[in-house]
Amino acid sequence: MNEAARVSVALARARAAQPSWGATSVPERLAVIRRFRRAVARDPWPLVHTIPPPRDPAETLAAEILPLADAARFLERTAARLLAPRRPIGVRPIWLWGVRAQVRREPIGVVLILGPSNYPLMLPGVQALQALAAGNAVCIKPAPGCAGAATVLTLVLEEAGLPQGVLTVLDDTPDAGAAAVAGGPDLIVLTGSAKTGARVLAAAAQRLIPATMELSGCDAVFVLEGADLSLVADCIAYGLRLNGGATCIAPRRIFVQQAQAAALEAAILVRLQDDPGATVPLHMAVLLADVLLEAEANGARVLGRRDGTAIGPLLVAGATARMRVAQEDLFAPVAALIVVNGIEAALAEAIACPYALGASVFGPPMTAFAVAAQVRAGSVVVNDIIVPTADPRLPFGGRGASGFGVTRGAEGLLGMTSIKVVSVRHGRFRPHLHPPHATDAERIAALLTLTHAGQSPGWNTLQALIGGLR
Asked: How confident is the model at residue 464, as a pLDDT?
């Protein structure tokens, strides 16, 4: 059986399993997720060992499995309320007297999750749990080499009571991903590069398949007057060290004022000097070499170690916002230090980059919070970096070339649903069914005056309206 045929069978199996799972009550679905969470907490090592070296097991536990368990508990506590039918908000128009309406959240159907290579447990895992909680069937297409994580995740969920066929792991090949999109899922959730997102969207558009796109990042760090430069340097070093720099919201562009630049540069280099750096894929090493050559040719200084695919961490001092090092999605431990003349200049320079996924602002809390409100990004952290975005209560997504739609949080869960509105008419009041009458325009104008003119209706208005109700 070829790749397309295998994927077709998997999608058909998921579509056949979904109606029964979707008809399962929300509390029963959440009971499966609760048992899954407790099983992972009792013995996380089967999942940990799906991530090979050089990733340290402690980092996998902290960066992937703990956030996954917290996301499961968030669903257990909130999903029933979020997914419950609700009455519409606001005042019902008077001309709809006797109508009662309900807004319902229903499963979309089959959700295709195209997973990333950098966090193959937490990112597709949370997305899968949210899709399952909403009553969908899920097919995960892992990144190449990451099928083990998705497979163990599925096994633990099935041991927790998830019916077979509701969650399926596809082959991890690019051909399997293309075949899955062509197979017509009801929703696509992609975490990947902007280039991959463009290809997936082009294919999805042919079939009008909705999609949530969590794409590339080139995150900005804004250093304000009064910022604790020691804290900034600690956070930059952490962001470059985490997962070998292969984090979509790692710091890539550091905007700092001239008076702080030398001190911050020195503080960052001290923290990076003993860091072994990371080995990056060959294609990324080639891209990075080209980007760094362009930066040096234009006056920047590349500080740190680089030897083929063994990289840094690297700090590119004296960079500008228009250099490629501050424009590209670099999955490597590298950041550009950009000197600006004040925060307004920093904000203006920052939008030169097409990506707008995350950002950090360092400085006095009130001032930094005010600046955060002006930053173009999907998620902004004040006086910290990366870690607060893993809060399971918070949605996560980008803008611009960083994608659209969100995963995680209440908004991510609701994004896994279709909206159905049910309106019920009570009583006999149905004026729209009356035969056309010469006074219709007068009556409708009277109703408009009564309800929207912002003044007391005159006697003629009331007469026209009452006459229309007879």
From this structure: 62
